[in-house]
Each structure stands twice: as C-alpha cells, then as structure tokens.
Write a structure and sequence with these properties.
single chain, alpha/beta, Alkaline Phosphatase, subunit A, 11 strands, disordered N terminus
Length: 518
C-alpha cells in the first residue's frame, strides 16, 4: 500500500496556517510552488514525441519530459472527458463521485475540488479552454476548475491571468485544450497533410484498418496535438519571461485516449493510457523515465502533497502521491507497491435503449489488463441505429445516430460503410460487436488489446487472480456496482445532453444479430 503524507512539502505547519489566513509573508508565499495543469482532449499516450513515434511533433511536451520526468504508464481514471475531469478535480474514482462519474450529468457540490482548496489557502486560480465539461453545474457559482480566463487563444488567456494575479501570490492555472477532440479534427479535415504530414509514414494502431482514409484522419488528429503543444510552448515562454518557470510544477497529460473506434469510451490501452510529463525546476531531478503505474488521481494527491494544502476529510481522495517518485533520482520502477491501477466506465453518450450505459471496470498490472463488462448483452459502442420520431431508423451513414459512443469522423465512416467487406469486417466487429463478460490481454505482446485470453485454460489462474483483486478493490473503495444497495444507480442519473431513441432489445432487427467479438 502506498502511503500518502506531506513529506517535503513547501507549505506546512505555521506557514500553511498563516498562508490560509492570508497573513503569510511575501517570502513564504513565494516559496509556494505555482502549478500549471495542461490537459489535451482525447490523446493516447503514444502520440507524443517523447514516446518514440517519429511522426509525432511535440517539442514542448518533449521539453517538459526531458527537463522533468516522463511517465510511460499513466492512466486516465475513466475514458470519457467530464467523468475523468471530475475524478482529477476530486481525486476520487469515477464510481465514488455519483452523477459526476457519468458523462453529461451533474457534479455534486459536496465533493471538494482541489482548485477551491488551493484558493482557500491563498492561491490565485484560473483556467482556460475546457474545464469540467460537458455537464450541468447547478449549485456551482463557477466551473469546478476555477475562474475562466478566455477561450480559444490559450496563451493570451494565460497572459491575462498573469496580469491579474496579485504580485507575489502563488498560482494554479488549468490549461484545458479542446484539441485533439474529434470535433476539432472534423473542423480541420485535411489539416494534417496541409501541415506536411506524410500519411504513408504514419503508424496505424493495430485495431484500425491501414487505408488512406484512416491515415489521413490520423494525420489530422496528430496536427491537432501539435496545436495543443504549440500553445503549451507559448505558456512555457510566458513563464520564462516572468521568471516563474522553475518555481512552477508543470503537469502535461490528456483526459483519456484518442477519439477513434475501439479507443475512447473503452478501457483498452489506447482508451485510458495517456501521456504524462512533470517538470519542477531543480526540485525534481530531470531527464528520467518512470515505468510505475500512475493514475491521474495520483496527480491530485501529489498537488496536495507538494503544496501542503490539506486534503479533503469528508470525502477523502483515493489517489496516492507520486512526490517521492518525482524527488527520486531513480528511473524505471521507482516505487514499490504501485502494482496496479483501477479503471472504470459508466454511461458515455446517449447510445442505447432507455439511455443505458455500458458499465465496465478494469485492473491494469505491469503485464495484464483484465476487464469486467457488467452488461455484455448491451452494445459496447452503442446500438447500430437510432430511431426517428416516426419510428423508422436513421440510416447507418447518419453520423451520431450510429454507434454513438464512437465519435464521428472519417474512420468511423469507413468502418460502417465497409462493414460487409471481407477485408475490413473484423475491424468493424472489434469496434462495435458485443463482447463477453470478461476480457484479458497480455499488454507486453498485445498493446492493441485484440487477443482476448479470458477463456483460455492456460490463463485461468491469472484471470481468477485479477478478477478477485479487482472485486476486492471495488468493494474496499465502495463501488455501488459491487456493494449495492443499488448496483444500477448510475443509470438513474439524468443526462443533460441530447437523448436518442433506440428500439428495446426485443424489437431489434434480425440483421443486428452479429457475433460476439472474440
């Protein structure tokens, strides 16, 4: 078990008490670290230059990694934007935050968020771009991520934030880019080729067909990652100009994986594994690569630890600080005890009959990923076709009304239009076909998560051990799916985005009776 504690935090004891009461001296305030939390929108871990793909151009992320610590195995708590952001803000798993653990719902105000606690301790806080979203903020007087500064021009927003910051006051700034979310890709189709990407040189993930349409789509996705990185570079330059760079903890990551079929809204590697680099001047030895398993709620714990700001008591955080890992001079597996991360998913889009979700939980170790699908009878990517008002089906070519848990884009269109093609049908079924109740993947040999080992006799002991470890952790962390009293409570939370209509299971057309994916 990882122990959490204040350790070598800058703020503590009398300094913290004075700081929280706004009576700290200028020297005490200036010793407190600033924090920049930069979050891209829908980026898988491998799509940053520091991870070794030559076609990905992210010089500013790479700089943070080179001057700080690069984490090879970091994970979003859940593969959807608003529940992951709520998990980060609270430091709790998505199954521990009720409505906020689902997409497009509400964020209960009883859960404390770390920007508020930093502000109460004397920090100047703000955000730009995407904070906690999408969802209903009833009961909040502002976004849970803080005070908004600007929207599209992220660096200009940060400049305004710095201009308004009281002199000598430590700050927290959340840079929530909208890139490379599929909506930004759709608005910039062709941008990858226009920016000079050679689509023939792009690495296609193993779960996607290697065709020009997909390669071009990937180029546009990578171009939007570049846009995120370019704004990050401008923010770093502003920090240097103000002399604040080395007293600022810079955290760069993503809210979850890429918005492509069989990635986002699943619990596979390309779904939940995210880039992560952390820089803090001379406070942490740089140029290191860490292979420990890290959950982004651990970053929340680390922020509390590094600042000395007290953690919430009524609804305690579930993350574990990585400050000892950051302060270490070691590489690889630095801290014993980080043997697994635990992931979850509840309702994403409105994609099934009666607005039902596709609940999943997973345990990821160094070697294996084990997934439990609670309702394998449901469509994992959403039902094939939604209903019009007159009861007829939308055509499958009708974007969001087809497999609605997959974002619209050229790759989804290609798979749907070629679903009957012998060469591409398996890619289609892997993305949308029904799945068994349990999945097991050897990540060392199958990072694309295509070879399910759960039913193989030679893996029975491994499957059993991981299933037991997962259930034990879910019980200990209070997951309603396991301990009740209402395992289906997540289905009762209102959704405030659009609601689609689908036929009930007994009314589904015979042509939907596809095989269960292997």
């Amino acid at each position: 078990m990882i122990k959490t504690g204040i350790g070598t935090a800058w703020l503590g004891g009398l300094v913290l008490s004075a700081f929280a009461a706004n009576t700290a001296s200028a020297d005490e305030r200036e010793r407190a670290p600033n924090i920049i939390y930069a979050i891209s929108d829908d980026q898988s871990w491998i799509h940053a230059g520091a991870y070794g793909l030559p076609e990905v151009r992210t010089p500013n992320f790479d700089r943070v990694a080179a001057e700080g610590v690069l984490f090879e195995q970091a994970f979003a708590p859940t593969p959807g934007c608003s529940p992951t952001r709520a998990a980060i803000l609270t430091g709790r798993h998505n199954w521990q935050i009720e409505h906020a653990g689902t997409h497009w719902s509400t964020f209960p105000t009883k859960y404390s968020v770390f920007p508020d606690r930093l502000e109460e301790a004397g920090y100047f806080i703000g955000f730009t771009g995407k904070g906690w979203a999408p969802g209903n903020t009833n009961g909040w007087d502002r976004d849970p991520a803080g005070v908004r500064f600007g929207r599209g021009d992220y660096a200009a927003a940060f400049q305004r934030f710095l201009d308004e910051r009281p002199e000598g006051t430590p700050f927290f700034f959340w840079y929530g880019a909208h890139q490379p979310h599929p909506s930004t890709i759709r608005a910039n189709l062709g941008s990858g080729v226009a920016a000079g990407f050679d689509i023939d040189a792009i690495t296609v993930p193993p779960f996607l067909p290697d065709v020009p349409e997909v390669r071009s789509h990937l180029a546009d996705y990578l171009r939007m990652i570049e846009v995120f990185d370019e704004h990050l570079g401008e923010i770093l330059a502003l920090l240097e100009e103000t002399g604040e760079l080395d007293n600022t903890i810079i955290i760069v990551t993503s809210d979850h994986g890429m918005g492509f079929p069989r990635a986002k809204a699943n619990l596979y590697e390309y779904s939940a594994r995210v880039p992560l680099a952390v820089r803090w001047g001379a406070e942490i030895p740089g140029g290191r690569v860490v292979k420990n398993l890290i959950d982004l709620i651990d970053i929340t714990a680390t922020i509390y630890d590094a600042t000395g700001v007290p953690k919430p008591e009524e609804y305690p955080i579930s993350g574990h600080t990585i400050l000892p890992v950051l302060r270490s001079e070691a590489e690889g597996l630095v801290e014993p005890g980080r043997e697994a991360v635990y992931l979850g998913r509840e309702r994403h889009s409105s994609a099934r009959h009666d607005n039902l979700g596709y609940p999943m939980r997973a345990i990821r170790t160094q070697e294996y990923l084990f997934i439990r699908n609670f309702h394998p009878d449901r469509w994992p990517a959403g039902a094939p076709q939604a209903l019009r008002e007159d009861g007829s089906f939308y055509p499958r070519s009708h974007g969001g009304n087809t497999f609605a848990d997959i974002d619209d884009g050229p790759t989804k269109t290609f798979l749907v239009e070629n679903s009957g093609h012998e060469k591409y049908r398996e890619y289609f079924l892997q993305a949308v076909g029904k799945r068994p109740g349990e999945e097991l993947y050897d990540i060392r040999t199958d990072p694309g998560c295509l070879n399910n080992l759960a039913a193989r006799p030679e893996y029975a002991d491994i499957r059993r051990d991981l299933a037991e470890r997962l259930e034990t952790y879910l019980e200990e962390s209070g997951d309603p799916r396991i301990i009740g009293p209402d395992p289906e409570v997540f289905e009762s939370y209102p959704r405030y985005g659009g609601i689609r209509r689908y036929p009930s299971p007994g009314e589904e057309p015979e042509e939907w009776n596809w095989k269960v994916a292997p």
